[in-house]
Amino acid sequence: MQNLWAMVFYVSILLTDVLLLEREVMNMKEEKIKLRRRIYRLVAEHARKLDNLQDVYGAVMDSLGGEISREEAEARVRAALGTFEKGEIPQEVDFPFISIIEKACEGYKEDCACSMSCEPGALRMDERGKPAVDIDRCLSCGLCIIACPEGAITDKAEIAQTINLIKKHKRVYAVLAPAFAGQFGRKTSEEQLKTALLMLGFYDVLEVALGADMITVKEAEEFLRRMDRGDKFMITSCCCPPFVRMAKGYRPKIAGLVSDSVSPMVAIARFIKAEDENAKVVFIGPCIAKKTEAKLPELKDAVDCVLTFEELAAIFEAYKIDPANIDVKSLITDASHDGRIYGHTGGVSAAIIASIKNLRPGTDVKARHGNGIKECKQILDAVEEGTTEANFVEGMACIGGCVGGPGKLVDPEEGARAVDRFALESRVKEAVSNETANILFNKYKDRVKLESSKM
Question: Which residues constitute the domain of residue 128?
Answer without folding.
Answer: 24-160
